[in-house]
Amino acid sequence: WGDLGHETVGYFLAPNALAFVKATISSSDDNSLGPAAIWADEVKYDDGWEWSQPLHFVDAEDSPLDGSCSVEQTRDCGDGQCILIAIANYTTQVSDSSLSSTQIQDALKFIVQFLGDIGQPLHVEAYEVGGNDISAKCSGESTNLHAAWDTGMVEKNIDDNHGGSSETYADDLVTEIKSGSYKSLTSSWLSCTSITEPVSNSKRAPGADLEDEIKNLLQDRATEKITPLECPLVWAQEANAFDCTVVFNYTKGEDLCTSSYYSNAVPVIDLQLAKQGYRLAAWLNVIFDGST
Ligand code: DCM
Ligand code: DCM
Ligand code: DCM
Ligand code: ZN
Prior knowledge:
Blueprint: H1 15-24, H2 33-43, H3 73-77, H4 83-94, H5 101-117, E1 135-138, E2 141-144, H6 145-161, H7 166-179, H8 186-189, H9 210-222, H10 230-241, H11 260-289
Antiparallel strand pairs: 1-2
Helix pairs in contact: 1-11, 2-5, 4-5, 5-11, 6-11, 7-11
The protein binds 2'-deoxycytidine-5'-monophosphate (DCM) (3 copies) and zinc ion.
Residues 1, 123, 146, 150 line the site of zinc ion.
């Protein structure tokens, strides 16, 4: 989803991470992460950047309509072209001083975008192309389920509850984190912050045939042996669990933005945006300041 959660992150950055962000994000982006976060959403449709499209999500092949939700590294990201490995990849690049300043800037902007996206339940779900193929209604307008979660319900939430301003929304989430209903949750949000811990169970399946072996070999080279990390998988599993509760729990023809569906979704949207913004700050703090 969009740049809203990212605006919360600046409040929680440690000194070196904050200095890095200010020095890295160009002045056209106001030296901050909010505007920079939109970049990855825009370039993915540009010539020469199409490869980045699948990096925004992981198609978890679970069965949310049967109440069975899960994300698995090997099953869902076997080719390495998904958000789980993208986070690992750009985490190594963002602090690689052998790279150009443009590469480092791109890496930071990808990390910002992907730590947000991984908290959107439909970015960690394969069913109906992450809900893109499910038509839906939001405040009378035709849309699809995915877009309702990316924008429709988020914008209505901002209008209804945060004065129509995304800055106010970010401030309100920060207040909840610092002294409100999220305060007691923040330490559990950071139970996974290792930027290096690999997924324990990422070995490829035994008995793969030669073609698979060669494909995997090329993949290893293409990704320069980037090892999947544990934390993005944990975050994806957390967001994906909502696919088995609120996300697909509508009735046919229901207007998602004017019904109980919306009132059930808003707390999830608030929580996921606040959580991922807070985790993004912690992630950058670990990279640049050595701890959360
Ligand atoms: N977005 C935006 N401004 C743009 C393009 C996209 O705010 N010019 C936001 C709207 C959606 C999100 O980006 O919330 C889409 O992100 P993704 O494609 O990663 O879901
Ligand atoms: N998307 C997703 N899972 C997919 C395909 C797309 O989460 N399997 C996301 C990426 C964008 C949105 O859905 O946020 C729309 O995708 P696109 O612009 O590629 O149609
Ligand atoms: N979009 C936009 N500006 C916004 C909100 C949405 O340009 N403020 C567009 C960008 C995408 C679509 O809406 O085309 C939703 O994003 P995505 O399809 O990437 O989820
Ligand atoms: Zn989306």
